[in-house]
């Protein structure tokens, strides 16, 4: 898109307050993405006139969302004033609901987090358990000086109506139609908003907002590999939810008709071959142990053994790489993304998985295509599902209005 078209795309008609809110969000997102950035640069990139930029920047300064920074260069006459996000001022809470444990943290606007706290998940009484989560966040908040939280983001493995904040179905928690947003909002009051979404979708947002890759990603799929397989889909920098909030449920696409029994009750699902549980099952079969015996291993232990040279553990993981490649090939043929990004504990052995994934994808996905799709591991230093929960809340502060430049 050339600059003229970009400017034309910024022209927004309608209610003056709506227009101003959109322009405010555009400016705030430009500062977040391009900081340090001057008012003149913002006007040039957004197509907004300089007076509009000046007025909105003044508001953002008053709200202490941003601050001014003088760029000092002795070689030029007048040093420009750049703008940056103000940190240590606006915080959000993050909760990743999973089983057997949940994780929580508090994050700043740049995605940096305080300490991560875990607690045993007790899903039988959702309201009581969510109250426990809020108590843990309150304790963390006291450690940062008791500053109020602007909002709380919650990520859940399952089908989530992100608009209503209702968890429609979360098999690991045994939840159906749990009104997570309403429960939390009742306990928090109106001073703190709540955003809820699927954990893989939240992970994709975290990768989009805070990931660091050599290529600029606008179309990609984030695959969250754990007890199951979930996916978050980003198209033209927008998260895809689907008509019934069920987009990205690739873990339950059929890989082999009549194959292994999946936790969903069907046979031959991708999840039954490429999840952590499937990897462990293969290894336990090789060792002639029951996955449910006291001598069974965790995925962390299996990865440790593979890194220490256990060939059977390495072979079980290589087979997972092959099965991941089969499913990824189908995703590529359906969506034609720039990249597939993997998250989960198994990326600790990404060097072992990647050759199997790449070889399988090359054989099955690139019919007549000029180039391949990038297969990457997550670049996030924090668990994507937890940082994803924080991103859900941070995104609300920025209103998620962006211009594709």
Topology at a glance:
Blueprint: H1 3-10, H2 16-34, E1 37-38, H3 39-46, H4 50-62, E2 66-70, E3 81-85, E4 91-97, E5 101-107, E6 117-120, H5 126-143, E7 149-156, E8 159-161, E9 166-170, E10 175-179, H6 180-188, E11 193-198, H7 199-210, E12 220-225, E13 229-235, E14 238-239, H8 271-274, H9 276-286, H10 299-307, H11 311-335, E15 339-343, H12 350-364, E16 374-377, H13 384-398
Parallel strand pairs: 4-7, 7-11, 12-15, 15-16
Antiparallel strand pairs: 1-3, 2-3, 4-5, 5-6, 8-9, 9-10, 12-13, 13-14
Helix pairs in contact: 2-4, 3-4, 5-6, 7-13, 9-11, 10-11, 11-12
Structural commentary:
This protein is α/β, with parallel strands linked by helices and 405 residues long. The protein has three domains: 3-85, Arc Repressor Mutant, subunit A, CATH 1.10.10.10; 91-204 and 386-398, ATPase, nucleotide binding domain (Nucleotidyltransferase, domain 5, 2-Layer Sandwich), CATH 3.30.420; 213-378, Nucleotidyltransferase, domain 5 (2-Layer Sandwich), CATH 3.30.420.40. It has helices at residues 3-10, 16-34, 39-46, 50-62, 126-143, 180-188, 199-210, 271-274, 276-286, 299-307, 311-335, 350-364, 384-398; strands at residues 37-38, 66-70, 81-85, 91-97, 101-107, 117-120, 149-156, 159-161, 166-170, 175-179, 193-198, 220-225, 229-235, 238-239, 339-343, 374-377. The strands form four sheets. It has a five-stranded mixed sheet with strand order 6-5-4-7-11, sandwiched between helices. The model is unreliable at 1-13 and 401-405 (pLDDT under 50).
């Amino acid at each position: 898109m050339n600059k003229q078209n970009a400017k034309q795309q910024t022209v927004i008609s309608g209610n003056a307050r709506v227009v101003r809110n959109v322009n405010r969000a555009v400016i705030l997102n430009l500062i977040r993405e391009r900081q340090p950035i001057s008012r003149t640069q913002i006007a040039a990139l957004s197509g907004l006139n300089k007076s509009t930029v000046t007025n909105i920047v003044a508001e953002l300064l008053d709200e202490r969302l941003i601050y001014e920074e003088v760029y000092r260069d002795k070689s030029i006459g007048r040093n420009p004033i750049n703008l940056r996000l103000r940190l240590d001022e606006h915080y959000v809470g993050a909760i990743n609901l999973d089983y057997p444990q949940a994780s929580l943290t508090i994050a700043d606007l740049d995605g940096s987090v305080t300490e991560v706290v875990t607690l045993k998940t007790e899903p039988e009484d959702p309201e009581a358990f969510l109250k426990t989560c809020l108590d843990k966040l309150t304790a963390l908040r006291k450690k940062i000086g008791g500053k109020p939280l602007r909002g709380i983001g919650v990520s859940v493995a399952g089908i989530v109506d992100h608009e209503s904040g209702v968890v429609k179905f979360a098999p690991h928690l045994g939840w159906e139609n749990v009104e997570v947003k309403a429960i939390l909002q009742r306990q928090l009051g109106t001073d703190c908003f709540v955003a809820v979404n699927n954990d893989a979708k939240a992970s994709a947002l975290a990768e989009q907002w805070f990931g660091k890759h050599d290529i600029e990603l606008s179309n990609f799929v984030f695959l969250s590999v754990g007890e199951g397989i979930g996916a978050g889909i980003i198209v033209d920098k927008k998260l895809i939810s689907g008509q019934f909030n069920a987009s990205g449920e690739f873990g339950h696409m059929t890989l082999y008709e009549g194959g292994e029994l999946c936790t969903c009750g069907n046979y031959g699902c991708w999840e039954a071959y490429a999840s952590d549980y499937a990897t462990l099952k293969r290894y336990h079969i090789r060792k002639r142990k029951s996955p449910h015996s006291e001598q069974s291993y965790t995925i962390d232990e299996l990865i440790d053994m593979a890194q220490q040279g256990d060939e059977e553990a390495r072979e079980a993981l290589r087979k997972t790489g092959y099965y991941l490649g089969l499913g990824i090939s189908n995703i590529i043929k359906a969506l034609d993304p720039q990249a597939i990004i993997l998250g989960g504990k198994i990326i600790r052995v990404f060097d072992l998985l990647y050759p199997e994934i790449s070889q399988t994808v090359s054989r099955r996905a690139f019919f007549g295509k000029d180039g391949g799709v990038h297969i990457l591991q997550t670049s996030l230093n924090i668990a994507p599902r937890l940082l994803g929960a924080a991103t859900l809340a941070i995104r609300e502060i920025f209103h998620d209005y962006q211009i594709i430049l």
